[in-house]
Design brief:
By secondary structure, this protein is mainly alpha-helical. Helices cover 60% and strands 4% of the residues. The strands form 2 sheets. Strands 1-2 form a two-stranded antiparallel sheet.
């Protein structure tokens, strides 16, 4: 069985590019909207911590996507492609993801998980490691969001507050593409811009708490994707 047929059999609806999901959505837009909602709610609950190894990544992914995919937290079993033309990235299965991620963890541990590095140096080193993890793309979907939480925790224990809201989507996508070609300079710049000075972070805490409360309030009035689907079907 070639990779395309294997990917279809394991992950997608017949004759479709849409991933099979627990919610039963067969349209990409519906799935994307529901996925964002559920993942956001799981982030609000708190993200599992760990040793910055493969198991840690799997626990984060499992937590974020447990409501959406049966295979949440499981290592992908197919080669995947992202982008087109010069921006196309291919994520193979060799070297084995388990072996490659063990090397990432070994190097991180040898550097004391980047603790006590100055801001700029942390950003450069973290970019190298996140670039490595991104090249592995351990999961069939949801790698970027998993990596962000991994990076946030890596920064936190190293003494740097990484504010994920400071990442600009297109810049990070381009940084990831370049990191796949072993150029992590743009990714380091993105990370550096996302690091918040502790004093400024404390000043911003109160407004952010208010924004979080308002966001949760809006969600409390939003029907779940499953309920919305049933409602639309009934109509």
């Amino acid at each position: 069985m070639n990779n395309e047929k294997r990917d279809q059999a394991l992950y997608r609806y017949p004759n479709s590019t849409v991933l099979r999901n627990k919610l039963g959505y067969e349209k990409r837009q519906e799935l994307d909207e529901a996925e964002r909602l559920y993942v956001s709610n799981r982030i609000d609950e708190g993200v599992p911590e760990g040793k910055f190894d493969l198991e840690h990544l799997q626990r984060i992914h499992k937590h974020l996507f447990q409501d959406v995919y049966e295979w949440a937290g499981e290592i992908r079993q197919t080669v995947i492609n992202k982008g087109e033309g010069q921006n196309k990235s291919i994520f193979p299965l060799n070297p084995p993801i388990e072996f490659a991620m063990a090397d990432v963890h070994k190097r991180l541990r040898a550097q004391n998980f980047l603790r006590d590095l100055p801001r700029g140096e942390f950003a450069r080193e973290a970019a190298e490691y996140i670039g490595d993890v991104n090249r592995l793309h351990p999961f069939r979907e949801g790698n970027g969001r998993t990596q962000f939480q991994y990076l946030k925790q890596l920064g936190g224990q190293a003494g740097h507050t990484v504010d994920l809201t400071r990442f600009e989507r297109q810049s990070w996508i381009q940084a990831s593409i370049e990191a796949n070609a072993f150029d992590s300079e743009r990714m380091a710049a993105c990370i550096d811009r996302a690091i918040v000075d502790p004093d400024k972070s404390r000043v911003q805490d109160k407004p952010r708490q208010i924004e979080d409360q308002e966001r949760r309030g809006r969600r409390s009035h939003t029907p779940s994707p499953a309920r919305r689907k049933n409602f639309d079907r009934d109509r």
